[in-house]
Amino acid sequence: MAFELPDLPYPKDSLEPHIDAQTMEIHHGKHHAGYVSKLNNAIEGTDLAGKSIEEIISNAGKHGGAVRNNGGGHYNHSLFWSIMSPASGNHEPSGDVAEAIKAKWGTFDKFKEEFANAAATRFGSGWAWLCVDDKGELFITSTPNQDNPLMDVADERGTPILGLDVWEHAYYLKYQNKRPEYINHWFMVVNWEEVNKRYSSAKG
User: Fold this and answer.
1) Rg value, the chain, Cα
2) pTM of the predicted model as reported, rounded to 2 decimal places
3) What's the pLDDT tens digit per position in 135-154?
């Protein structure tokens, strides 16, 4: 069964003014769609066909650049769309993940500062992540290109529960080279309810 581009869980203009509709249209309909198409081409007729995206990317280092880059691109963007939602005024986490963030970083503001720094200082294209390790502990990391912490090639491995795309195609139309401004605005559309669900699932 070939992978398919998931629908956005909200209208493409509903993240405005923080993320503009044109960026969402191009980012989802062109970039993510391209990763899906190229991933399907790369795995067609191989023993990877029929495997889950998690199974494929967990061994990304063994499968070559096309599978690693496009498999990561598909997984990363699928997560990215799901952990955002139209601005609701609730810009802070709640539930178990809020308690875990407080236990790890002391305050939500300190967590935001460290996460934003990971995103802002990722050289070139890549992602910043909040993850759960194999002991159920939270950690912040970043990865280059379309890599992610599920991959066997990652410096720090874990289950991503929050991810921020810092490729220029994610923000350049609205923010140009002002990546920190994009990061600050992105926090206004994080779907903390979804992040909490992913945290609960990841820590078991």
Assistant:
1) 16
2) 0.96
3) 999 999 999 999 999 999 99
